[in-house]
């Protein structure tokens, strides 16, 4: 749960806005607490780009070289 009352009000305002995309963009531009909240949320629900890139590169090189780890 979100404990910060200001952040709670901001989330409610975005959610109930007639133009939530604009409200989100405004909050991202002006509210450091919202920027932090979004960053932490994305870290929780999405893999880190470096980890995803490393895994994708490993799979790509195996496809290109025909190596699959079997000897």
UniProtKB/TrEMBL annotation:
Superkingdom in the source lineage: Eukaryota
Region (Disordered): 48-71
Bias-annotated ranges (Polar residues): 56-71
Protein name, per record: Uncharacterized protein
The organism's taxonomic lineage, starting at the top: Eukaryota, Fungi, Fungi incertae sedis, Chytridiomycota, Chytridiomycota incertae sedis
């Amino acid at each position: 749960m979100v404990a910060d009352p200001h952040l709670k009000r901001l989330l409610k305002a975005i959610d109930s806005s007639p133009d939530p995309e604009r409200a989100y963009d405004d909050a991202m531009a002006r509210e450091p607490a919202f920027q932090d909240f979004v960053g932490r949320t994305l870290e929780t629900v999405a893999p880190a780009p470096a980890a995803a890139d490393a895994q994708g590169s490993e799979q790509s090189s195996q496809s290109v070289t025909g190596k699959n780890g079997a000897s």
